[in-house]
Amino acid sequence: MMNDMKAAVVPVAQPYLPPLAEFMPYLEQIWLNRWVTNGGPFHRQLEDALCEHLGVEHLCLFSNGTIALITALQALNITGEVITTPYSFVATTHAIHWNGAKPVFVDIDPVSMNLDPSRIEAAITPQTRAILPVHVYGNPCEVEKIEKIADTYGLHVIYDAAHAFGVRRNGRSILSFGDMSVLSFHGTKIFHTFEGGAIICRDAEMKRRIDRLKNFGIEDEVTVVAPGLNGKMNEVQAAFGLLQLRHVERAQEARAGVDRRYREALGEIRGLRLLEIDAINTRNFAYFPILVTPEFPLSRDALYEELRASQIAVRKYFYPLISEFVDYRGLPSANRDNLPVACTIADQVLCLPIFSMLEAQVQERIVDIIVALAGAATLRA
């Protein structure tokens, strides 16, 4: 076993934190404003700044991405069945559950790892009301095919775009497709507000509806029009988001360098498959997944254990599938025979560390461990 216990633990992701001195003026202004939540000045500034940065018109900030997902479904009155992917973070399906709807799992594409459009129509029933795809790892879904199916059957489309901050497809923001897109601003994301999220919607009237729903459904001081949640982003989060936005392009460039070095070092290793790059999409370098196929000398789990023993905190992201968790595995669509590609990828995937502050020499150590293990295992075989 290759083990370097003296080395510091290297996480898969680590939030970028600007110098504290840059954040202090924002905190001082919040103190002077005496306005800490409920749509304060920094909240309004961040909504405007994000609309401009992302190239969208209508954006609603939230305290976290999960409440944003729940509210997006509620805003469209989604009940019945929702077609979705089993290959995502569990919040995707939890949001369906919290709206009293039934998730219907459909298999994924073996290359993009996103919901496979060719399998959607077979899952549509008279109870189907919506499709909830995920831009996995920030890699855009085949939105044109998905939305053609949705238009044919009169279905809503809500994209879980938690990983897709700043991504574009054919020059258009990926967030502008569908009825809505939902972002996460969790601390591990490229752009974050400690915790946070947002819904991107099509028009001003829907934005007003969403803004009411995230504030308990309150219309005015004496009127409540819907059973909304408390999903408001506070002023500290919003202020930090404004500061983060000043650094996000630099952070993305640093991640691009990490991605490039991995591809150069690992791209030719037999038995490792990297996420393919589609020329029509811009990338944000949110994650760096590899697939450990049977041609590699070690199994995925064995490679995981070796890297963990060397203080590299890789993750099997996403394993297990959502469809295998106790609350969902009893669904007919959760049967593994229905999801062969997703099952295979979940059993092979390993996400390597990628974040803006990852030092080149640390990344070199990660690569050296993988290359050495591949060579040593081949010799042992």
UniProtKB/TrEMBL annotation:
SUPFAM superfamilies with a match to the protein in the record: PLP-dependent transferases
Molecular function GO terms recorded: dTDP-4-amino-4,6-dideoxy-D-glucose transaminase activity; pyridoxal phosphate binding
Name listed for the protein in its UniProt record: dTDP-4-amino-4,6-dideoxy-D-glucose transaminase
Enzyme class: transferase
Domain of life: Bacteria
Keywords: Aminotransferase, Pyridoxal phosphate, Transferase
The protein's Enzyme Commission number: 2.6.1.33
